[in-house]
Write a structure and sequence with these properties.
Blueprint: E1 15-18, H1 22-32, E2 34-40, E3 47-52, E4 55-60, H2 66-78, E5 84-93, E6 103-110, H3 117-120, H4 131-142, E7 148-155, H5 164-172, E8 177-179, H6 182-191, E9 195-205, H7 214-232
Parallel strand pairs: 1-4, 1-5, 5-9, 6-7, 7-8
Antiparallel strand pairs: 2-3, 3-4, 5-8, 6-9
Helix pairs in contact: 1-7, 2-6, 4-7
The protein binds 1-O-phosphono-alpha-D-ribofuranose (R1P) and uracil (URA).
Uracil binds near residues 92 and 204.
Function: Catalyzes the reversible phosphorolytic breakdown of the N-glycosidic bond in the beta-(deoxy)ribonucleoside molecules, with the formation of the corresponding free purine bases and pentose-1-phosphate.
Organism: Pseudophaeobacter arcticus
Catalytic activity: uridine + phosphate = alpha-D-ribose 1-phosphate + uracil; a purine D-ribonucleoside + phosphate = a purine nucleobase + alpha-D-ribose 1-phosphate; a purine 2'-deoxy-D-ribonucleoside + phosphate = a purine nucleobase + 2-deoxy-alpha-D-ribose 1-phosphate
Length: about 230
């Protein structure tokens, strides 16, 4: 057990899917895993372990934002031996070709400052996805009838951003979408020689102002979960 994860050591798989929303962890475990067991409910940050096609998998909520994800990813990696961590998140589309319900596979994640910034000092570290996971996720996504985009995303610290100029620069530099965790996940994976990836569903669009209706969210998130599972065990 750790401060934030009330599981026993063997309760957590080497492969962990990480949604921001703990209820998405519950839904994904109940929908896609066999014999899913609740392994964490400390602070309501639900985690489940079960199996997918015979492979042991944990789905653990990360909470919103890099400081929260950093707590869970640190404990999963350092205390529970997680080796492959795949974020399954929602994001806001930033480019015109990115549509609602599309999937973004994040090659890199730009950030202003992650929780790891203090150790890098003047270095602008470039957090990037694991190549084998990225390649497998793109193959899995392209085999489906779903818009798929591969490229850079923006991991923001603010959902209600008062700096429109930042988004302007992201759009100008081809950033596909905005979310709030991937850059720190990629940085921690690099530090601890793990594999990490973020597979994201576009739930709203910053340019058009469109939003996925809440009754369509779960159905749209299903592709993302299956892509993540297929990539983890490709
Ligand atoms: O849907 P999740 O995985 O929580 O991801 C996105 O949604 C939250 C903001 O609403 C942030 O965590 C952002 O990264
Ligand atoms: O961080 C996020 C997540 C979804 N949509 C956004 O606009 N931002």
């Amino acid at each position: 057990m750790t401060i934030h994860i009330g599981a026993q050591k063997g309760d957590i798989a080497e492969t962990v899917l990480m949604p921001g929303d703990p209820y998405r962890a519950k839904w994904a475990a109940e929908t896609f895993l066999q014999d899913a067991q609740l392994i964490n409910e400390v602070r309501g940050m639900l985690g489940y372990t079960g199996s997918w096609n015979g492979h042991k998998v944990t789905i653990q909520g990360s909470g919103m934002g890099m400081p929260s994800l950093s707590i869970y990813a640190n404990e999963l990696i350092r205390d529970f031996g997680a080796k492959t961590l795949i974020r399954i998140g929602s994001c806001g589309g930033m480019q015109p070709q990115v549509k609602l319900r599309d999937v973004i596979v994040a090659m890199t994640a730009t950030t202003l400052a992650s929780p790891s910034q203090s150790i890098f000092k003047e270095v602008n570290f470039a957090p990037s996805a694991d190549w084998s996971l990225l390649q497998a996720a793109v193959t899995a996504a392209q085999s489906r009838d779903i818009g798929t985009h591969v490229g850079g995303i923006y991991s923001s610290d603010t959902f209600y951003d008062e700096r429109p100029d930042l988004n302007e620069q992201m759009v100008r530099h081809g950033i596909l979408g905005v979310e709030m965790e991937a850059a720190e996940l990629y940085t921690l994976a690099a530090r601890y020689q793990c594999r990490a990836l973020a597979v994201l569903t576009v739930s709203d669009h910053l340019g058009t102002g469109e939003t996925l209706p809440s009754d369509q969210r779960e159905r749209s998130f299903g592709d993302m979960v299956e892509i993540a599972l297929e990539a983890a065990f490709a």
